[in-house]
Amino acid sequence: MKKVCIALLALALVGAAWAKDRLAILPFTGGQGEDGETIAELFSFEKEIKAAFDPVPRTSINTAIRNEQRFQTSSGMTDPDTIAALGKQLGAQYVVSGTFTALGGQKLLVIAILKIDELRQVAGDVQTYNNMSEIRGKLSGMAKIIVAASKRDASRLPRLATPPVRLSEGASEREADTLAQILAVYLIRSRKYAVYPRTMSLEQVQKEYGNQFSGDVADEYLPILGKGNNPRLVLAVAGRKLDDNNMFNAAIINLVTGVQEVVATVDYESLEDGIQAMEDLALKLTGKEKQVQARIAKEEAARKKMGQAGKTAETRTKFNYTIGDAETFTRSIAAINADSAGGVYTLTLTGNFVINPVVFTSNAVKTIEIRGDSSTRTLWNNGGGALFTTPRGITLALGNNITLNGNNKAAPIVSVKSGTLTMRVGSVVRGARQRGVSVENGLFMMEGGTISGNNGGVSVFDGGRFTMSGGTISENKATSDEGGGVSVRNGNFTMTGGIISGNSANNSYYEYYGYGGGVFISDGSFIKSGGGTIDATNSATRGRVVYIKSNNGDKQRNNVAGPSVNLDSRVNGATGGWE
User: Fold this and answer.
1) Would you say the pTM of this structure is higher than 0.85?
2) How close are the terminal C-alpha atoms of the chain, in Å?
3) Domains plus CATH for the chain?
4) 75: pLDDT strictly greater than 50
């Protein structure tokens, strides 16, 4: 009898050890038709989610939502109080919510996972997108971020309540809520605070808005906002304007003393810059202002090193073009190439069209930014060469809502030849039968955007340099047998953020060859530090994640290199991150 009891106890302990928390994934709000329900359902199918949690059946969730009238499905807003109530109805320990929203013309999906017994946000992610089909390819990466962050212990961290950002001058409540959610994501990633996204009702937030807009700063009222879960700190963020400068001012206020413990400010041009502004603000609030300064200094130093020292294009006259057809585009490029004074030229596209390859003229320091209007716009390659070629002194910046499509031509989409390319949030490079971006003795700064569906993502050679602080390189297939995501030969690659996922490297004739599904380095250097993910969905015969070919011994990594994993091609063995 005693042995039976011991055996039953052992089985019970094993069962408890294997028990998983229940996770409810609510329909994502702010979309059209069944978009929110469909994306939430696909998210629940992700293998990382199913391995870490027991997802609540969708039918149960739908029934609970029909019975819960406070859920803000029409506005697209997220209300943590309502989310917690739904979680309790469903018997879930965690709830995932998502919102399709926008900042200016930039489309965003913001997701969060809340631990409902504390009403604390344990993780989150924000992604830009152009259409719903593109979202589907990003779900796996978002699931990995959510699962990894949910396992971290935040019990000893100071609690911080984060009400919506205060905006004026006609900005919408939804934009304020979006900025707060983005800021919460970056604060959680800092691992310095336990974040409470909002501990008061939507109606109370609106009342506080009224106080702020009447001219009453009411900082003494802010401590009330956090008392629902007794966080010790409250974050107040306001959008301000001083002359022609837009800024976000932030203060972390102690609930007990009312004293501002930390203050920070960042400048921005428009709300479309909100993602970068919130990241910089979070870095400053968590004592990492040097990282912001280093990023800015690094960009400026890079420009100078590429022959852009002295009076930069940013200090010259700005020229704006609105372009709706290929003929107007061609005339605009001709005018820019003919301008020997240099400057900043912004091309805003209002249509989609096919163009012949463009080679910019290196007769002055110039920055050419190409972006879409409020909709995603596409330029298709109609020739045999690279869609854009940037020589020394030329910076090509790809802004929001712009897609460059290689049209299956056997040429890179952007060829950086001693010049500079910058990819920002909302830009896409896809559809080439060669690398999406080729960097020859030039500089490529990837701050955001997506490179996908090419015969290899990025190629760096002949002294070229590639810095990746954001964005996604995914679903590229290198048939040259090396570097599905990034290939470096005699160049440098530095990664501090972003995702490299789902790329492959294999020889089209000999399938057993293939080096560096995510990253391949030969006669160059690769340093990953401070963030970013290269995951094991990349594929290659050798070095699924990274392969380093070196005179002092080859190195490789086949397991995921997440944000906390640093890699250094100059260092051998486990110290350098190699297996």
Assistant:
1) no
2) 49
3) 19-152 (3.40.50.10070), 154-287 (3.40.50.10070), 456-579 (no CATH)
4) no
